[in-house]
Amino acid sequence: MANHRDPIQRVGAYAICISEESAILLSRFAEPDCRWGPPGGGVEHGEHPADGVVREVHEETGYRVKVVRMLGVHSNVWRSPDAEVHAINLLYEVAVVGGCLQDEIGGSSDQAAWIPLAELPERRRTEASMVSYLDQPGCGPGCGVHWVERAQASACSVISAMSGLLAAA
């Protein structure tokens, strides 16, 4: 009989930070994944998601940021080998207010970098589809976009989505 755990619900908070030079701040997950994506991660018990994204960005990139606005919520449910998982990811636009770029030591990521938006589609391991739903107005929970599985296929949509988000600000 398979070992089955109770369902897991995970709340994450992720940051979209675009520089004046049209580069996006990304962090790379440590081995074995080595995927690039927006800095962020799990919200701790009792922590407000906006505080969680500020903490995660500092841990993964060295920058102190402020939340500009919430961009959206992405919900996804899948089955792992031993449990059903429900991930709820909140996406925030943030702005750098201090600190300096540095890589996380001993954490879930191992590198941080500013990537020009024009180069984003060329980075095959960029986990860009996390924000691809933003170019589909009204899309939210149930959209069916699993941002890990569809990362490579939607990298190009990040450029158009981010252009629209920043123009609307």
Automatic annotation (TrEMBL):
GO terms for molecular function: hydrolase activity. Residues 9-138 form the Nudix hydrolase domain. Keywords: Hydrolase. Gene3D superfamilies: Nucleoside Triphosphate Pyrophosphohydrolase. Coiled coil: none annotated. Belongs to the Nudix hydrolase family. This is NUDIX domain-containing protein.
